[in-house]
Specification:
Radius of gyration: 16 Å
Number of helices: 2
Order of helices and strands: HEEEEEEEHEEEE
Distance between the termini: 17 Å
Number of domains: 1
Largest sheet: 7 strands, antiparallel
CATH superfamily: Immunoglobulins
CATH architecture: Sandwich
Length: 157
């Protein structure tokens, strides 16, 4: 559930800019690869296909975002490389990410995984631009997830 929650949050983040909401579409989430997972850092990469319907390329600079589950912060998500979407094309993105978790994040995720539905939220201030003009946009997106879809055989203690 942890991995899926992060990727859904990232998807919300990439396509949450108010002025770009309609022309940029998430076509598919194609999987992920965890590189490092311990109590201090989670490094992974996620692969997406994104359709940019604008006549200009769109870029997003590196930045950080806060991730919440059930109104409790589980950590800061960092995008360390810029994202570039070509104009009028579908682009395959492999996005390297890292999460610096809050103390007790696994307990929060485990408690949330037992519920039928959980609220997930991502917020931050990414710099998004066209050509050389960038604007900092506030992002705050919430969604409801069903943990049973991600962890169908969760052990109960």
């Amino acid at each position: 559930m942890f991995k899926q929650l992060l990727f859904i949050s990232l998807g919300l983040l990439l396509f949450s800019c108010a002025s770009l909401e309609e022309p940029i579409e998430l076509v598919s989430y194609d999987g992920s690869e965890i590189k490092q997972f311990n109590g201090q850092i989670v490094q992974f990469s996620a692969t997406f296909h994104v359709q940019n319907k604008l006549f200009v390329p769109v870029k997003m600079k590196p930045g950080s975002f806060e991730i919440f589950v059930e109104q409790q912060k589980i950590g800061n998500l960092y995008l360390d490389q810029p994202i570039k979407l070509k104009a009028r094309k579908e682009t395959a993105l492999k996005v390297p990410l890292r999460l610096i978790p809050e103390p007790g994040f696994m307990t929060t995720l485990y408690k949330s995984a037992k519920k039928p539905e959980v609220q997930a939220k991502i917020s931050g201030y990414p710099k998004v631009g066209v050509f050389f003009i960038y604007k900092t946009l506030p992002v705050s997106k919430e969604t409801t997830l069903q943990p049973q879809q991600f962890l169908p055989n969760l052990p109960v203690f």
